[in-house]
Each structure stands twice: as C-alpha cells, then as structure tokens.
Amino acid sequence: MVIKKNVVYGGPALNVPAHLSFGQYIIDKLIEHGVDDTKIALVHGDNDEKITYRQLLHDIVSFATGLRRHGVGRGVIVAMCSENRLQFMVATMAAICCGATITTLNPQYTKGE
User: Fold this and answer.
1) Which of 40, 69, 89, 90 has its CA 20 to 30 A from that of 55?
2) Span 85-94, pLDDT tens digits
3) Rounded Cα distance, 41 and 57, in Å
4) Which residues form the AMP-dependent synthetase/ligase domain (predicted)?
C-alpha cells in the first residue's frame, strides 16, 4: 500500500470475470467467506463494532431489495452522505448490486478533497 497526497493506493486491481457484474462478484465472494457466520468481515476502528461476512451479505441483500422497490437500478445515481460506520459499506454495496452509480457527499469536504 502506498499513500501519496491524501490518496491510498492498494494492491493489484481485481479481476472480475466478464460474465459477472461487480455487485455479483462481491456477493459471490461474501458467500465464499461467510458460510459459518464466525468470520469477521469488517471492524470499526473507533468502537470495535464488528460484522461477519454472513451478516454483511444479509444486510446488503436486504438493503438492495428495498432500493429496488424504490426504483434504484441502472442509470440511477445514489449519493451517500454518512459518518464513518459499517452501514456505509452495506448501503454502498447494496446500491452497486442494484446497478446504480455511487457518489459521495460530505458537507465538510475541503476544496482539495
């Protein structure tokens, strides 16, 4: 991992098979990792809140179902404004699974951000 001017660069890009959407790829990976409901997927660094792969999968699918009922899908842009919390990942991945485009909002962003 490399950090340059407020940007974190990770490892190599994911190789998502051409026949899968990114959302389906993530769902498949969550299913692979979460069969026993004991493996931790995310940990909130400030309060040590944890979520397992199985719970993350359940929450994403439930949220995506609700978004679809409200017409969220391909061609829709979903703006996310959230404090740092595990549910941000749930909402973001649910929108991606619906085919929506995600953008983030933060009223406290500085001009450089």
Assistant:
1) 69
2) 899 999 999 9
3) 10
4) 39-112
Q: What residue ranges define each of the domains in the chain, with the CATH number in brackets?
A: 15-104 (3.40.50.980)
All residues at 6 or more sequence positions from 112 whose CB lies less than 8 Å from its CB, including other chains: 6
CB 42 within 8 A of CB 51: yes
pLDDT tens-place string over residues 95-104: 999 999 999 9
Distance CA 36, CA 3 (A): 35
Q: Which residue has the higher pLDDT, 19 or 13?
A: 19
Q: Enumerate the H helices of 9-105 as residue ranges.
A: 22-33, 53-69, 86-97
Which residue reads 């692979």 in tokens? 32
Q: Which two tokens stand for residue 56?
A: 């993350």
The β-bridge relationship of strands 101-104 and 77-80 is: parallel
Section 70-94 average pLDDT: 94
